[in-house]
Amino acid sequence: MGEQSPLPASVDEALALLSRGNYVGERSLATVLLLALKLGRPLFLEGEAGVGKTEIAKVLAETLGRRLVRLQCYEGLDVSAAVYEWNYPRQMVEIRVAEAAGGSDREALASDIFDPRFLIERPLLQALRPDAQGAPVLLIDELDRTDEPFEAFLLEVLSDYQITIPELGTIAAAAPPIVIITSNRTREIHDALKRRCFYHWVDYPTAARELEILRVKAPEAPALLSQEIVAFVQALRREDLFKLPGIAETIDWAEALTQLDKVALDPQAIDDTLGVLLKYQDDIARIQGSEAARLLNEVKTELTGAAFA
Questions:
Q1: What average pLDDT does this structure show over 267-276?
Q2: How many other C-beta atoms lie within 10 A of the C-beta of residue 55?
């Protein structure tokens, strides 16, 4: 975490902020990000897995010099894992010590064991704590994996940025955290929560933007190889696959082919490395061999035509 930076004051500054974190974003993303920061609203990012939603929160924390607090969501996530829980083993030790010392005041003992020193703070509570670097970036990642009761609880937290612990009272944020919520849209998030947020759909990048991403994230890849990789991945995303390759897979593939000293795509290299790009055997079996060769031929024809157009 570096030195704290001021919040952007314009869309161009928001774009520059993303760029400093090596994130190649479009103007629409920079605009909604600017508004969320200036107006103190959570930013709800929805899109397919692997399009760079989580990375936005990481880049924000890095470029603004803020602490990143991440809540990774999953089915069955509850308050004890997301907000706080009491350190029961330490409390039991405290009770045994008090009994051995002849302590008999139950009210005093209850007060002692429900002391902040026995509190285990989870991400949501951590994000409300003051920080010398400024309010942290709170990433609530893959909210669609949780169930509706937790979603309702989260709505209450985001309304006032405070949490009530029965034994201690209400803990409120001195300054609300910068909240980024992501969803892969495996289920719909309730409208009540979405209304609290500014919304942006993060789509697969255009060919031009994906090529720029490779220039930033995989600069060692030869120019021709990068062009062919992007064109091939873009063609793959038009196929009926179980899981389309995301930006992360494109970057991994470019780095893998560069390590193999490839300067251009060929059918054998594609077949040998499809496991870097595709993560389901049915998808690999569908593309490997003649289909990969056909797509590569179309890509090379398209790029050659574009070069002489």
A1: 96
A2: 18
Q: Which amino acid is present at 41?
A: R
Whole-Å CA distances, 132 to 1, 4, 153: 12, 9, 28
Regarding whether 145 and 38 lie in a shared domain, the answer is: yes
CB environment 201-236: b (16+ within 10 A), e (fewer): ebebbeeebbbebbeebbeebbeebbbbbbbbbbbb
- Are both 133 and 28 inside the same structural domain? yes
Question: 136 — alpha (psi -120 to 50), left (phi > 0) or beta?
Answer: beta
For residues 75 and 128, membership in a common domain is answered with yes
Amino acid identity for residue 84 in this structure: Y
Query: pLDDT tens across 25-35, in order?
Result: 999 999 999 99
Is there a contact between 182 and 54 (Cβ–Cβ < 8 Å)? yes
CA–CA gap between residue 305 and residue 299 (Å, rounded): 10
pTM: 0.89
